[in-house]
Design brief:
Elements lengths: L2 H8 L3 H9 L6 E2 L5 E2 L3 H14 L8 H8 L9 H35 L10
Antiparallel strand pairs: 1-2
Helix pairs in contact: 3-4
Length: 124
């Protein structure tokens, strides 16, 4: 299928598909006319990339998942390299949550000092 059809079937812009190709996540074959030609399997790769990007993974983080799918696994997360990326991302999210909770506590303390009678949203 050509790039326009892949874009339409995956809901991803042709620009993004070219970007994924530029970063080695997609591999298009070229027809004699120079047009990119993609396989049906590329739909699954693009869907995996988009799903991971939508929850905060970087484009580089998606590489082990794409490689896992390319190696014949039914899901991109079933390889040990992908599991390691999941674990690293969860640790990163946990760190971000700790930082946000500390910031929230500090802002709440500042509000309490500035306005002793004020009620914080979400607290009684």
């Amino acid at each position: 299928m050509r790039i326009g059809e892949l874009a339409e079937r995956t809901g991803v812009s042709t620009r993004s598909l070219r970007y994924y190709e530029e970063h080695g996540l997609l591999t298009a074959r070229r027809g004699s006319n120079g047009y990119r030609d993609y396989a049906e399997d590329d739909i699954k790769l693009v869907s995996e990339i988009r799903a991971l990007l939508s929850v905060g993974f970087t484009l580089e983080d998606t590489r082990p998942f794409v490689d896992c799918l390319r190696s014949g696994h039914s899901t991109g997360g079933s390889c040990s390299e992908s599991v390691a990326v999941y674990q690293r991302k969860l640790a990163q999210i946990d760190d971000e949550i700790r930082v946000l909770l500390a910031r929230r506590a500090e802002v709440a303390a500042q509000l309490g000092a500035a306005c002793p009678g004020c009620v914080l949203r979400g607290e009684k």
